Amino acid sequence: MNEKIIIKSEKLCKSFSNGGIQQHVLKNLDMQIYEGDFTVIMGPSGAGKSTLLYALSGMDRPTLGTIEFSGERISEKNQDQLALFRRKHCGFVFQQIYLVDGMSIMDNILAAGLLVNKNKQQVLKQAKEMLKSVGLNEQIWHKFPTQLSGGEAQRAALIRAMINQPDIVFADEPTGQLNSQSSDMVLNTLTQMNEAGQTIVMVTHDLKSARRANRILYLQDGLIQGEYHLGKYQGSDEKRHEKLAAFLLEMG
Ligand code: ADP
Ligand code: MG
């Protein structure tokens, strides 16, 4: 496993006030994310997986505690500073595929790329290369998101998330809305990106998705209750599936 820490949380707390009642979702949570890893966060529904992902990525501020991202204390940044930070360092994909419906696939990706790199020719060249590398060829570039299958659209969303070469891609249940075949295509893309060096943090409750990771964290009762290390994914493998299932059984 890679030993270089890219994100580190210390005593991370996140609470919400729901109808006047304080709900403590994350409770003094210490954790690290390592560069080059494909980390998965699992845990029961409502455990706070999304909340944790949003805190680690600077989408939301912690109630208490610190988060260091590449040595920078992002927990002390205000919302505007965080927005800039995210644009530069993070890529996001969600269960809901957030592509702009009124724009072609290529325009969606260019719009994201041009936020950071003003050289349109450069961004265009890179977008084409990246789309091709995940099997999205020319015939789909000028289509609109609703004309694509879920798997194609989510892969396009991944390219958009990666067009600015983020330090980390955060994925919150990225296959949650997809059928099995589309899920596999998206998971293959994520695996391929990780093989090329992209650090990934993904929330999932699905074992088939989780086994793509080399490090699995289990969140429950506001803390990381367990951690499991698998080698890097190298194709479908019964043993890998069994090991992970045994870990989850132990946790759940
Ligand atoms: P998970 O992703 O593990 O299913 P979440 O992180 O979405 O869980 O939510 C954890 C808990 O925090 C839930 O009980 C949810 O109601 C609460 N929560 C999450 N976001 C908010 C919010 N913005 N306002 C109030 N409560 C929230
Ligand atoms: Mg969630």
TrEMBL record:
<keyword id="KW-0067">ATP-binding</keyword>
<comment type="similarity">
    <text>Belongs to the ABC transporter superfamily.</text>
</comment>
<keyword id="KW-0813">Transport</keyword>
<protein>
    <submittedName>
        <fullName>ABC transporter ATP-binding protein</fullName>
    </submittedName>
</protein>
<dbReference type="InterPro" id="IPR003593">
    <property type="entry name" value="AAA+_ATPase"/>
</dbReference>
<dbReference type="Pfam" id="PF00005">
    <property type="entry name" value="ABC_tran"/>
</dbReference>
<keyword id="KW-0547">Nucleotide-binding</keyword>
<dbReference type="InterPro" id="IPR017871">
    <property type="entry name" value="ABC_transporter-like_CS"/>
</dbReference>
<dbReference type="InterPro" id="IPR003439">
    <property type="entry name" value="ABC_transporter-like_ATP-bd"/>
</dbReference>
<dbReference type="InterPro" id="IPR017911">
    <property type="entry name" value="MacB-like_ATP-bd"/>
</dbReference>
<feature type="domain" description="ABC transporter">
    <location>
        <begin position="7"/>
        <end position="246"/>
    </location>
</feature>
<dbReference type="InterPro" id="IPR027417">
    <property type="entry name" value="P-loop_NTPase"/>
</dbReference>
<dbReference type="GO" id="GO:0005524">
    <property type="term" value="F:ATP binding"/>
</dbReference>
